[in-house]
Sequence to fold (179 residues):
Amino acid sequence: MGAFYVQSPPIVYEKIYKGSTERTPIVFVLSPGADPQSEVQRLVDDMGIGSSKFSFLALGQGMESKAKEMIERGSIRGHWVMLQNCHLLVKWLKTMEAIIENLQKPDKAFRLWLTTEPTDDFPLGILQKSLKVVTEPPDGLGANIRQQYTRLTPEQLEESEREEFKALIYVLAFFHASI
Fold:
């Protein structure tokens, strides 16, 4: 019997959001080259949340107090907060776990989005309470093209009356998948 490979389904950010709560962080475990920030930004736009209610921060040395402030302020005001590169501040992640635990009645609209490369040092307490999303690059040209199409709605594909529009979309998806 031969081995087989099952392609993971594309990430649907609306479903991730619907499965989350104000007390459920969303943790993206990243593969090389993956960056969900633009897709989360698109979700913010699609849901009409507004860019003023979405803030993100790339973590690094000296960003601990800014991240703490963003989590606390976001939980009170019902904003979305994305902290990227959590693996770069593994020593601070235990503190972040305590900050999340101590949030008093976070607003129902609050969402905490976290990105990290795989690390054994990520606090188990956060992972147990989180929705975990593993990003994997599509395997092969066809899967990559399909992933590009999952980002488009049928309405967007019918937006233009020009015959060439759909062919141009395919060529762009093919080009993107190739590079």
